[in-house]
Design brief:
The protein has twelve helices and ten strands. It has a four-stranded mixed beta sheet with strand order 3-6-7-10. A four-stranded antiparallel beta sheet has the order 4-5-9-8, with no helix packed on it. Helix 5 crosses helix 7. About 0% of the residues have low confidence. The protein binds flavin-adenine dinucleotide. GO terms for molecular function: flavin adenine dinucleotide binding; oxidoreductase activity, acting on the CH-CH group of donors. This is Acyl-CoA dehydrogenase, C-terminal domain. It comes from Blastococcus aurantiacus.
């Protein structure tokens, strides 16, 4: 099938199964069951895991097909939110580090929408310095016992599995005693408590582990080599966040803003037109950068710190647009009129993007050290055994 035929197939399926972006569909949200059914439909239509190997449920196609899909999908509301983390981060990490059994067991159900995954790195003692985490796993006769607490875990309240980074050897320096486990989040020792934010949603959770038993074959990669697995997962996270499909339905994106501006007769105002032109230009630059990174990743070229540049751009953009639209729409943003509500909610959610997936400061540090070649952080605790460090609780 040529790329054009694939694009036509994707478009036909989306026209039948997804709502196009238009004013009437703004603000509608799908239930978890609807999301699962949609993901299953995508997979059955050959539109999920487009570039992934066939033996693990993927389609075995190339970047051209992925980009063609992204292009047509941007015009539709796709209720795939619950799968973004699993398919964006744990799944590619499993493809890179997992055993054959793990790949065959876990990737197809994720692609089919049957199982949802979370990523559990951050802890109350700090998220930027992930390697200082305190949740531990100790060896028992038939596997490991996990105890501790994670926080900010997106989607844990509806997830089935988590990729959980824990400390397995506190006598080693902080980066060297970590291990990544696959944990069944329905285990009776796992408690998930949703955290409600300013928008009224509960996008993330606290997750507590009390004597959670995991078998030996739940280790992703090698015991005490979890840092390498975590670094890979964070790299996938940056690329996923920074290069995600920018749907027309994004309330802070150009298309949605143009509709709001037109509805208010502001489209003739030269200042508004200049702002919209700037938004369109930045959006287009980010889309092109995403396309390049996708193509290079597929060709096996290292994305490295450019994933941080994409993530930073994706986090700065909504904050920047938030300021601009407040100048255009002013008080009307607070009135919660139906067409303004999605925009108001996106403005409230924008600062979260500057923290999620590694804060803007951390991305800037990475770019400074690895792209600009500036001196590295001193890392005074880097070689000290973890159990000799003074820890914040
Ligand atoms: C919407 C959202 C979703 C999230 N989802 C998940 C998830 O699913 N799984 C998960 O594990 N985590 C998740 N997180 C957590 C996120 O990864 C952390 O919040 C983030 O890494 C920062 O950690 P922290 O909040 O502990 O802040 P801290 O690490 O305590 O940092 C506090 C401040 O200090 C700055 N800072 C820290 N260190 C440095 C430094 N070396 N140089 C310069 N500045 C520094 C930071 O930029 C920040 O402004 C999510 C967060 C958000 C907001």
């Amino acid at each position: 099938m040529s790329t054009d035929e694939f694009r036509a197939k994707a478009l036909a399926w989306l026209q039948q199964n997804a709502k196009p972006f238009d004013e009437n569909s703004q603000g509608s949200s799908a239930t978890l069951e609807e999301s699962k059914a949609f993901q299953k439909g995508l997979w059955e239509a050959g539109l999920a895991g487009i570039t992934w190997p066939k033996e693990y449920g993927g389609q075995g196609l190339g970047t051209a097909e992925q980009l063609a899909f992204n292009e047509v999908a941007a015009d539709f509301r796709m209720p795939v939110g619950p799968f973004v983390i699993g398919l964006g981060m744990p799944a590619p990490t499993l493809l890179e580090f997992g055993t054959e059994e793990q790949k065959k067991r876990y990737i197809p159900p994720m692609l089919r929408g049957d199982e949802i995954w979370s990523q559990l790195f951050s802890e109350p003692s700090g998220g930027s310095d992930v390697a200082s985490l305190q949740t531990s796993a100790v060896r028992v006769e038939d596997g490991w016992l996990i105890n501790g607490q994670k926080v900010w875990t997106s989607g844990a309240q509806f997830s089935d599995y988590g990729a959980v980074l824990v400390r397995t050897d506190p006598t080693r320096p902080k980066h060297q005693g970590l291990t990544m486990f696959i944990v069944d989040l329905h285990h009776p020792g796992v408690t998930v408590r949703p955290l409600v934010v300013a928008t009224g949603d509960a996008p993330f959770n606290e997750v507590f582990f009390d004597d959670v038993h995991v078998p030996e074959d739940a280790v992703i990669g090698e015991v005490n080599n979890g840092w390498a697995v975590a670094v890979a997962m964070l790299r996938y996270e940056r690329v996923t966040i920074g290069t995600g499909v920018r749907a027309r339905a994004n309330p802070l994106g150009y298309d949605a803003l143009v509709e709001l501006v037109r509805a208010r007769g502001l489209d003739g105002d030269p200042t508004v037109r200049r702002v919209l032109a700037q938004v369109a230009a930045r959006e287009s630059a980010m889309r092109s950068y995403s396309a390049v990174l996708h193509q290079e990743a597929k060709a096996g070229l290292p994305i490295g710190a450019r994933g941080s540049a994409a993530k930073l751009a994706g986090a700065v953009f909504p904050l920047w647009v938030s300021d601009l639209v407040q100048e255009i729409f002013g008080e009307e943003l607070a009135l919660q009129t139906p067409d303004m509500l999605p925009l108001a909610r996106s403005i409230l959610a924008a600062p979260g993007g500057a923290t999620a997936g590694g804060s803007n400061e951390i991305q800037r540090n990475i770019i400074a050290e690895r792209v600009l070649g500036l001196p590295k952080d001193a890392g005074v605790d880097k070689n000290v055994p973890f159990n000799q460090l003074k820890l914040s609780k």
